[in-house]
């Protein structure tokens, strides 16, 4: 399992009933339904209104769940009138030229898997992400690579901040309240000493800082809001990308959106908004 995938899954596993947590009412909820933190269902126009003041809309996902990506595509369509940039954790910046050609209409969707080396680089089926690219293409929205090439991540993990690329002058460490979750993710991947822990936190900080820097750069370059699609662990509780954006772009509006599996009450501390995708059933096929 990819480390980022394990981290992304943790906040959903840790959710449990308790004060301040809400379940939607007893009416059946269709997969892909968007919800407020109190469980109220949101129509697409309400979703657009709830995010209208945001410069950044951060949308968490489980990488291998088709339903999550269908919901993300629906959010892209709902926010399309604002002309946002669609930012992707799944693509590293060294493939931005491919995304530029796609955004310009010069490269069809079906050519993207090969042009992006998608399977080798990301490891999830392109087919479950296809709705996101289709929604961006339909609305004529620019698509941006937010991640760093794997070799840069490896180098920074091994050598420290001296190996940071020039666009990232320094890492922004995680907030103290995130440490218990990071510890659990670290321990789930085996044992290690202080050096291994330091490298783990450094790489996590690199991912979140790099995506925040890239989102800010795209927002300023095009003077548009940015929808950031990333693993749930980078979005939950405002600890990941949002924490870095508060440092990099103070005062900018940030709205977070997380998947809700229906297996535990909604925790409003996790995000501002939610979308329902069931916890059971097929992950890479059509969700039930």
Task: Give an account of the 3D structure.
The chain has 288 residues and is of the alpha/beta class. It has one domain (3-14, 34-276): Rossmann fold, CATH 3.40.50. Helices cover 42% and strands 14% of the residues. It contains 11 helices and 8 strands. It has helices spanning 3-14, 44-50, 66-79, 96-103, 112-115, 118-122, 126-139, 150-159, 179-188, 194-222, 241-248; strands at 34-36, 41-42, 56-61, 85-92, 143-147, 226-231, 254-260, 273-276. The protein has an 8-stranded mixed β-sheet, with helices on both faces. A hairpin with a 4-residue loop joins strand 1 (34-36) and strand 2 (41-42). It starts with a helix and ends in a 12-residue tail after the last strand.
Keywords:
288 residues, Rossmann fold, alpha/beta, 8 strands, 8-stranded mixed sheet
Query: How many strands, what sense, and barrel or not for the largest sheet?
Result: 8 strands, mixed
* Backbone CA Rg: 18 Å
CATH topology, which one?
A: Rossmann fold
Top-tier CATH class: Alpha Beta
Proportion in β-strands: 5-15%
Number of domains: 1
Name the poorly predicted regions: 1-20, 281-288
- Helicity, in percent? 40-55%
Mean pLDDT: 89
Q: Secondary-structure element sequence?
A: HEEHEHEHHHHEHHHEHEE
Helix count equals: 11
In total, the number of strands is 8
CATH architecture assignment name? 3-Layer(aba) Sandwich
Give the structural class. Answer: alpha/beta
């Amino acid at each position: 399992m990819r480390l980022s995938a394990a981290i992304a899954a943790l906040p959903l596993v840790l959710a449990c009933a308790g004060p301040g947590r809400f379940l939607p009412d007893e009416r059946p909820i269709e997969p892909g339904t968007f919800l407020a933190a109190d469980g109220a269902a949101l129509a697409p126009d309400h979703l657009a209104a709830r995010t209208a003041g945001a410069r950044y809309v951060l949308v968490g996902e489980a990488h291998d769940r088709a339903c999550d990506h269908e919901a993300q595509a629906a959010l892209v369509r709902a926010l399309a009138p604002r002309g946002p940039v669609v930012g992707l954790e799944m693509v590293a910046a060294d493939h931005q030229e491919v995304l530029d050609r796609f955004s310009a209409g010069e490269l069809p969707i079906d050519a993207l898997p090969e042009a992006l080396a998608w399977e080798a680089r990301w490891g999830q089926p392109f087919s479950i992400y296809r709705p996101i690219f289709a929604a961006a293409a339909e609305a004529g929205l620019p698509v941006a690579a937010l991640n760093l090439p794997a070799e840069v991540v490896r180098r920074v993990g091994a050598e420290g901040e001296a190996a940071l690329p020039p666009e990232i002058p320094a890492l922004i460490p995680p907030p103290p309240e995130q440490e218990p979750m990071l510890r659990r993710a670290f321990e789930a991947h085996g044992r290690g000493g202080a050096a291994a822990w330091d490298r783990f936190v450094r790489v996590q900080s690199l991912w979140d800082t790099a995506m925040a820097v890239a989102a800010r750069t795209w927002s300023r370059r095009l003077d548009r809001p940015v929808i950031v699609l990333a693993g749930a662990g980078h979005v939950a509780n405002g600890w990941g990308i949002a924490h870095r954006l508060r440092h990099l772009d103070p005062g900018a509006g940030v709205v977070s959106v997380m998947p809700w599996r229906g297996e535990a009450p909604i925790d409003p501390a996790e995000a501002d908004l939610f979308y329902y995708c069931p916890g059971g059933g097929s992950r890479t096929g059509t969700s039930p």
